[in-house]
# Entry
Amino acid sequence: MSNVLAVLEQRAGELKQVSHEVLTAARALADALGGSVDALVIGSTGVDATGLGAYGADRVTLVEDEELSLYQPDVFNEVVTAQVRAGDYAAIILAATAMGKDLAPRVAARLDCPLAVDVTAIDGSGGITVTRPAYSGKAIYTAEVTATPCVISVRPNAFTPSENAREAAVETRPAPRPDLRARTVRVNEPAGERLDVAEASIVVSGGRGLKGPENFKLVEDLADAFGNAAVGASRAVVDAGWRPHADQVGQTGKTVSPQLYIAVGISGAIQHLAGMRTSKVIVAINKDKDSPIFKVADYGVVGDLFEIVPRLTEEIRKVRGG
Amino acid sequence: MKIAVCLKRVPDTETRIKIGADGRSIDEDGVKFILNPYDEYAVEQALQLKDSAGTGEVTAISLGSSASQETIRTALAMGVDRGILLETDALPLDPVPIGKALAAELGSGDYDLIFFGKVAIDDYSHAVGTIVSELLGIPSVSAVGRLEIADGKGTAEREIEGGVEVVEFSLPAVLTAEKGLNEPRYPALRGIMMAKKKPLEIKPVELEEGGLSVVELSVPPARPAGRIVGEGADAVPALVEALRTEAKVI
# Structure
């Protein structure tokens, strides 16, 4: 019981960045336990698995079905649980993404094994100990895993992918076709190409200080100036209907940990801070120098956002252009 | 239509968390508890479905301490018909035993639909509803932002990174509610009065320990103090310089 199964995620044949984080976490745990890392990629045919060895996989299994272009919970659950039952695993690691949050409990329930969700650190030096935030980051649990195998979902951006050169053996086998209790029939893509706040490495969020939904143009322009930044929002403006709930950062929205988080016109209610306090660098722009947001910000600019933000957009364009 | 809604009593989102004397749980002294916000969407959806069907019963079920009766009463005041408290003193961190205890109750209830909030804002497991569906062997869709139910079938939409998944299923099913699924009603005074007379059954339950043993609950380290770079648009060049050379994020 010392091997680790890494369940990777792909979309349209391309592995997601978070899969490298999952592999990195799996490698570190397997090394501590003295085991190996098996990676599982489930989906349509034609996923490119080369290079997975570089992130720590010893073996890669592609489980394919040309009709499996979308996430089908019943198929994925069957593939993962069958692999676990046939192997010798201490842990099954996947990402706490929309897919992982749905799949992890299914696997744990079917295997009747423990589930640790949204884990930010794993220690395998004496048994398995996990660290995971609760109360939306206002508190942190440290918990010992007392039964194996254990299903662990890791929070995106919590594990930095590290290269770990090795050659992975790759095998391909067909996916099973169980009866589907629920069937994913399609994915509707939004018109915009902007990244999700939970995935982006730079997030620019706006709050009530923007005074109206039309002024989010300022936030969007700044996000565009960075190239690939996401646009987030505070609960107040989502509740007011200015922005969709998908953009909400905070305790009843998304928890984000980007490299750079810029809060524009957000005062910093405790439930908002809970959702972004693990960002690497926080910038706050607010007219009230006593706003709580400045207590968590690494860099603050006090003043009128309607003057500051366009100037910042201009400067960022200059930096990136030159 | 027979519908169940599963509820959890959680600390208010504005609560400042203090660690309790045991070092493994929060200090509940002075903490205001509320119905988990995501569960409000679940309750509202159940009530709307019952209303549109014109017949049926909505049952609220909560697993927790005796104080969870108050949480169930909130749902009864919104319009839920009856409540069941599965009473236990402590809930394990591992969501699997929680799912088992709820599945044992729900499995005998002959429900057409079972609603949960997508996540409880205390433990943030995002798992219990989905575990229940697996244990009962019925379909489930998690984090549902839009739902249509007709003729024993359903279509649910759930947000994923950069898109919306459309999922079809047949009843009975478990659905976990995302914010935005509907606009939850506030309990009216009449509802609050009526709630006091609605049936609330209390059943003691024994939970398994699960496979996660809490070693410590701690408050995250405070972020090191930052600095105000300056005031107004004139401070922007200094900010950009700091982001480039000090923080090295651009």
